[in-house]
Specification:
By secondary structure, this protein is mainly alpha-helical. Helices cover 50% and strands 3% of the residues.
């Protein structure tokens, strides 16, 4: 058995049975061969079974039906080695959190972020702290680019708490970055902006204003300032 065959087997089962939800236990009960293939061949940086890498390859219509195993409240601990393994593996790609990412870089970033998220969910507070540090580069960029998120400017502690909440609440396979963005977007509704901002603010020295540079992001559908 190889990866593509394993994915095809599960897709076929999902199409046939159409379960409302499915999990690793569901896979084990119906096709132990696939379960043991994943267990033996797909491992995270810290040697946990990497179900994220497998389920992301399934038909998109079933992704939100995936349920990770239920975990009791994680006991917090500190393990820098777990964090360093992740950072070392992706050291050449960490720039995707700092620079304005193109679509390919965003895909890489979406993949990288899952590892520290899952490690933080296990209770490693150092992984959570490292993740917050890198995500703040992205969020600060979002706040500058996307008008609906501007209200978050100045709410540093609250942003960190939202990140922690998203880490705890992320359960399904999909884009953690999209989940984080939507959480900030919805939470911003009704917030009081701490800084004055207007689309009539001047940009540069030629008399242009911010409204002249409004465009819509094709990935998120959000309005942003072109070139920012």
């Amino acid at each position: 058995m190889d990866f593509d065959i394993a994915v095809n087997i599960i897709n076929t089962l999902l199409e046939k049975e159409k379960p409302k939800t499915f999990s690793s236990s569901w896979i084990l009960s119906r096709t132990p061969a696939v379960y043991h293939f994943v267990r033996k061949n797909l491992r995270t940086e810290n040697n946990d079974i990497d179900w994220d890498s497998f389920t992301i390859a399934l038909d998109r219509q079933y992704l939100r039906r995936w349920i990770r195993y239920k975990r009791k409240s994680a006991k917090t601990y500190e393990n820098q080695f777990e964090v360093e393994i992740i950072l070392t593996k992706y050291k050449d790609k960490l720039y995707t959190f700092i620079t304005s990412a193109e679509s390919e870089d965003k895909e890489i970033r979406n993949k990288i972020v899952i590892a520290p998220v899952r490690t933080a969910q296990k209770g490693n507070i150092l992984a959570q702290e490292e993740l917050i540090k890198w995500l703040r580069y992205v969020i600060d960029d979002w706040i500058d680019k996307y008008h609906p998120l501007f209200k978050w400017k100045g709410y540093d502690d609250e942003i960190n708490e939202k990140i922690k909440g998203c880490i705890r609440g992320y359960k399904y396979t999909g884009s953690f970055m999209g989940y984080l963005f939507k959480t900030l977007q919805y939470s911003a509704r009704g917030m009081r902006s701490l800084q004055a901002w207007s689309l009539d603010d001047l940009v540069g020295e030629d008399g242009a204003t911010k409204v002249d540079f409004l465009t819509q992001d094709t990935e998120t559908g959000e309005v942003k300032l072109f070139g920012k």
